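A reminder from the course coordinator: this example appears on the midterm review sheet, so study it carefully.

Given structure:
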């Protein structure tokens, strides 16, 4: 079964990189009609301008067309332009992608696997997603396709039908000459970013000042003009000239340090007195110098621009690659911060469901229910479904049968969104586990009463986000085996610096991989009388 969220990402990737129609003119404001106001990120792309270059004729357009029609039911070469918008992260992702097509299209032409994950709605030309977080599909007209996750999907649909362009659309329209524009409203996530940075491991010492940039910059633009001399530009917009000057100083120091670190890595390349390896080292140095020479950092009042220039396709490609390498650590850090925030939010939801279960039944669930021979049948993740607003799915399970019975195994593909982890590719696997073993809350075949947790609710771990290799089918009664001798086993490698865990009082935090092992052992046990210091 095709995962829903990857479908949206893949379709966007196909569009930005490969999918223009080369013969149909683009009305300048047509794609902007789909832009709604106040997103966190907006992406506008005109790939037809890029692939209209004669050199792009070497791309396997026939293969791209065939693959698009096979996987999605849509010919990518009919896509004229694209806009993607992402809402401010306040929970599960909310994203929408709009496409302008050169030919009429119908939702019924979508791939059968995609259609199987949708349902009819009361609105014409709109297909709803099955389940929370599933993509919706809509067509405001026969040449406009919108794909997205609520509520962003509905916002883009409403914008498409509006009589006038909104404020965000008008702002984006001013950059219509860009081949690709990525705009991030940094101000909208400043508080969230700072909160996440307080919990995150510190950046390497030479780059710690970069963490201050979100407090100095309100908006960030990535602008690409691949068909002109100005290949790529980052534009940092600040509230005042003083903030822009401080941001410039940080970037100048980071660029200098970055170049020094790259050269240090090049010097460590093995040569073994081999002339070819010496030449490779020399080439790496030359290309590094070339890329950094093409970088130009300039300040104009409240705006700060970092530009890479090139006057031909080869240089343009190298400058874009260089800029991407410079941005990669920041992009990876931002993505990891978002994933950690999502994991913390998920564990909070699961802890709350556990506490509601305990309130209703006077005990936490056992890690599974058991048959007469004490064989585990279904995971606790199934038994708390009613407290996750999934009663309908819960009622479909045969609770007296094992997770892999002929009936229950058919429900594995229906895993609720709350159990999904963006670090895992398989949509039926989860790594949100409970600790099982002697002394834990989930020791034995019976659920514990809250009063049995004598070490203290705030001092006892209830749920963890385990390493990827610990992931299991969500209905399977398999969790994290607690080892008193190795309490960190199965934890601490999924995220830099540590792991996310929730306590029995519902609080959630990030636990350092360097945490004292005796302290961690005490956190996993619930009635051992061991001391956990705050």
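Designed residues:
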């Amino acid at each position: 079964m095709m995962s829903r969220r990857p479908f949206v990402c893949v379709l966007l990737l196909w569009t930005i990189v490969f999918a223009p129609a080369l013969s149909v003119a683009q009305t300048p404001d047509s794609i902007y009609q789909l832009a709604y106001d106040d997103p966190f990120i907006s992406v506008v792309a005109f790939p037809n301008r890029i692939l209209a270059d004669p050199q792009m004729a070497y791309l396997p357009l026939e293969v791209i067309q065939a693959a698009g029609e096979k996987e999605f039911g849509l010919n990518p070469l009919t896509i004229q332009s694209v806009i993607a918008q992402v809402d401010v992260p306040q929970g599960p992702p909310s994203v929408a992608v709009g496409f302008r097509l050169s030919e009429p299209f119908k939702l019924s032409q979508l791939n059968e696997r995609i259609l199987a994950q949708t349902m009819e709605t009361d609105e014409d030309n709109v297909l709803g997603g099955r389940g929370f977080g599933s993509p919706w599909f809509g067509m405001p007209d026969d040449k406009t396709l919108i794909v997205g996750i609520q509520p962003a999907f509905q916002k883009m649909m409403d914008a498409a039908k509006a009589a006038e362009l909104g404020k965000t659309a008008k702002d984006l329209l001013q950059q219509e000459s860009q081949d690709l524009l990525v705009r991030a409203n940094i101000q909208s996530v400043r508080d969230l970013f700072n909160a996440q940075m307080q919990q995150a491991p510190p950046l390497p010492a030479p780059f710690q000042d970069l963490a201050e940039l979100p407090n100095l910059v309100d908006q960030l633009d990535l602008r690409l003009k691949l068909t002109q001399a100005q290949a790529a530009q980052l534009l940092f917009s600040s509230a005042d000239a003083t903030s822009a000057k401080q941001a410039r100083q940080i970037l100048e120091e980071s660029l200098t340090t970055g170049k020094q670190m790259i050269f240090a890595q090049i010097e460590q390349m093995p040569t073994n007195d081999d002339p070819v390896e010496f030449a490779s080292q020399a080439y790496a140095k030359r290309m590094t110098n070339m890329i950094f020479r093409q970088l130009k950092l300039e300040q104009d009042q409240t705006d700060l621009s970092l530009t890479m220039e090139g006057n031909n396709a080869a240089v343009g490609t190298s400058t874009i690659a260089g800029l991407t390498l410079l941005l990669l650590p920041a992009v990876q850090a931002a993505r990891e911060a978002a994933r950690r925030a999502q994991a913390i939010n998920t564990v909070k939801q699961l802890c709350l469901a556990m506490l509601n279960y305990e309130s209703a039944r006077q005990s936490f669930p056992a890690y599974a229910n058991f048959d007469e021979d004490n064989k585990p049948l279904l995971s606790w993740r199934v038994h708390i479904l009613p407290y996750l607003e999934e009663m309908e799915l819960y009622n479909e399970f045969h609770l007296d049968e094992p997770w892999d019975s002929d009936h229950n195994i058919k429900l594995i593909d229906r895993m609720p969104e709350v159990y999904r982890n963006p670090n895992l590719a398989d949509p039926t696997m989860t790594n949100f586990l409970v600790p099982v073993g002697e002394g834990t809350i989930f020791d034995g075949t019976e659920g514990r009463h809250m009063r049995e947790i004598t070490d203290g609710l705030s001092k006892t771990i209830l749920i963890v986000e385990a390493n990827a290799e610990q992931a299991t089918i969500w209905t399977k009664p398999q969790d994290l085996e607690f080892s008193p001798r190795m309490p960190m086993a199965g934890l601490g490698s999924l995220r830099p610096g540590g792991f996310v865990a929730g306590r029995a009082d519902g609080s959630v935090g990030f636990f350092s991989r360097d945490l004292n092992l005796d302290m961690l052992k005490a956190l996993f046990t619930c009635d051992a009388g061991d001391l956990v210091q705050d």
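The two ends are 45 Å apart (CA to CA). Confidence is low (pLDDT under 50) at residues 1-29.
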